[in-house]
């Protein structure tokens, strides 16, 4: 197996070193090179030959935004992960970076410079392995899958919990003594997670009916995938579209505004107690679950909540799909797309059981074939669809079953 190579571009020497340490300590990843600004990165890109770039925004000489403009102009396809602060201004600039072709973003802990990189290290590795791995495989490299790095993240979580309970030194001694067994368990989990399973058979309680709502669950790889879908969606679509994209608070409103610029339909961030209107796309706000509720008068409303995370997420696709299965039954279309983990899979299967139409993104075009894979194996996916056909498939089903 070859390593996924990572270029780091940040004007802070501290941040460059901290990010390098996370990468160096992760099996399957290696630092291709470090740059103090976008201009230095441009000059060294051919030498570094990275599979993925971790990019700061505010830098001297050439900012992250200016680098992305150069990247777009020169048709460079190396994926870029943005490091962003969570301020409102930072959110607007971060979404601008997505518009310019950045793959995804991570919010820096405690502002622009912080030694607490450990709080986002698992997320950083998830994005690096997902986007960098996808790029590397497209260019002929044999690299580890996202499931492998997901298991590594689980191991680190165990280590942190043990350190809290018994102290760092005792935790490391304990883990070292059980390393062989842990390695065997990790290898077994990795093998089972990548072995394809035949889909379960779901006996639907009723036949699919007319589609009154479309619900989409998506995670890693989602920002650009949603741009591709909504750019090509039928401008005459009559049904409302409810979307759970795993994204931090403070960014979803700007993200919805960004999608609204390229989509013929109205795209907005969802609000609590909002009537559901046809031909409108509602994006779940960061840190809020979104679900559908039917009033005593039969009117369907959008509701938000801060109930506990589900599957490690808030918003959670499972929460949305569960409510759609209950309220709409067989008068819905459920779509699950690229993303690590299993969020949305169980309740998409429930939607299918209630008679809803369902689609899943295929393995070849998903940045991470996690959520759609689990949904498919549970029998929740009627048809797997490549990303470039997803807008047409959704539009066709919605049009023919309006």
TrEMBL record:
CDD domains: CheB_Rec, REC_CheB-like. Residues 208-401 form the CheB-type methylesterase domain. Phosphorylated by CheA. Phosphorylation of the N-terminal regulatory domain activates the methylesterase activity. Residues 5-123 form the Response regulatory domain. Keywords: Chemotaxis, Cytoplasm, Hydrolase, Phosphoprotein. It is found in: Cytoplasm. The modification 4-aspartylphosphate is found at residue 56. SUPFAM superfamilies: CheY-like, Methylesterase CheB, C-terminal domain. Its EC number is 3.1.1.61, 3.5.1.44. SMART domains: REC. The active site is at 219, 246, 343. It catalyses: L-glutaminyl-[protein] + H2O = L-glutamyl-[protein] + NH4(+); [protein]-L-glutamate 5-O-methyl ester + H2O = L-glutamyl-[protein] + methanol + H(+). One of its GO terms (cellular component) is cytoplasm. One of its GO terms (molecular function) is protein-glutamine glutaminase activity. Transmembrane segments: none annotated. One of its GO terms (biological process) is chemotaxis. Its main location: cytoplasm. InterPro entries: CheB-like (IPR008248), CheB_C (IPR035909), CheY-like_superfamily (IPR011006), Sig_transdc_resp-reg_Me-estase (IPR000673), Sig_transdc_resp-reg_receiver (IPR001789). Belongs to the CheB family. Involved in chemotaxis. Part of a chemotaxis signal transduction system that modulates chemotaxis in response to various stimuli. Catalyzes the demethylation of specific methylglutamate residues introduced into the chemoreceptors (methyl-accepting chemotaxis proteins or MCP) by CheR. Also mediates the irreversible deamidation of specific glutamine residues to glutamic acid. Contains a C-terminal catalytic domain, and an N-terminal region which modulates catalytic activity. HAMAP family: CheB_chemtxs. This is Protein-glutamate methylesterase/protein-glutamine glutaminase. It comes from Treponema ruminis. The gene is cheB.
């Amino acid at each position: 197996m070859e390593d996924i190579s990572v270029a780091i571009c940040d004007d802070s020497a501290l941040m460059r070193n901290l990010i390098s340490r996370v990468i160096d300590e992760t099996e399957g990843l290696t630092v291709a090179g470090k740059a103090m600004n976008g201009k230095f990165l441009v000059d060294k890109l051919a030498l570094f030959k990275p599979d993925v770039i971790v990019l700061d925004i505010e830098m001297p000489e050439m900012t992250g935004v200016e680098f992305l403009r150069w990247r777009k102009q020169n048709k460079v396809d190396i994926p870029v992960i943005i490091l962003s602060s969570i301020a409102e201004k930072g959110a607007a600039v971060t979404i601008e970076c997505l518009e310019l072709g950045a793959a995804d973003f991570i919010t820096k802990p405690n502002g622009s410079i912080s030694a607490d990189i450990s709080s986002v290290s698992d997320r950083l590795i998830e994005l690096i392995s997902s986007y960098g791995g996808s790029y590397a495989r497209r260019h002929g490299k044999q690299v580890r899958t996202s499931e492998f790095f997901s298991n590594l993240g689980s191991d680190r979580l165990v280590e942190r919990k043990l350190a809290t309970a018994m102290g760092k030194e005792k935790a490391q001694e304990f883990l070292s003594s059980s390393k062989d067994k842990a390695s065997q368990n990790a290898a077994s989990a990795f093998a089972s997670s990548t072995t394809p399973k035949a889909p379960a058979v779901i006996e639907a309680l009723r036949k699919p009916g007319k589609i009154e709502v479309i619900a989409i669950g998506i995670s890693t790889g989602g920002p650009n995938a949603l741009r591709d879908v909504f750019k090509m969606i039928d401008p005459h679509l009559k049904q409302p579209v409810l979307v759970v994209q795993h994204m931090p608070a403070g960014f979803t409103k700007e993200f919805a505004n960004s999608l609204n610029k390229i989509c013929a339909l109205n795209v907005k961030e969802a609000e609590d107690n909002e009537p559901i209107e046809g031909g409108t796309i509602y994006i779940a706000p960061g840190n809020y679950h979104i679900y559908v509720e039917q009033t005593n008068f039969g009117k369907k409303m959008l509701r938000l909540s801060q109930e506990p995370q589900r599957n490690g997420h808030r918003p959670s696709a499972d929460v949305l799909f569960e409510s759609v299965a209950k309220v709409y039954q067989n008068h819905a279309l459920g779509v699950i797309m690229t993303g690590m983990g299993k969020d949305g899979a169980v309740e998409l299967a429930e939607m299918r059981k209630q008679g809803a139409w369902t689609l899943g993104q295929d393995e070849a075009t998903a940045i991470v074939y996690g959520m759609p894979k689990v949904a498919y194996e549970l029998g929740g996916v009627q048809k797997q669809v490549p990303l470039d056909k997803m807008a047409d498939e959704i539009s066709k089903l919605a049009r023919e079953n309006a």
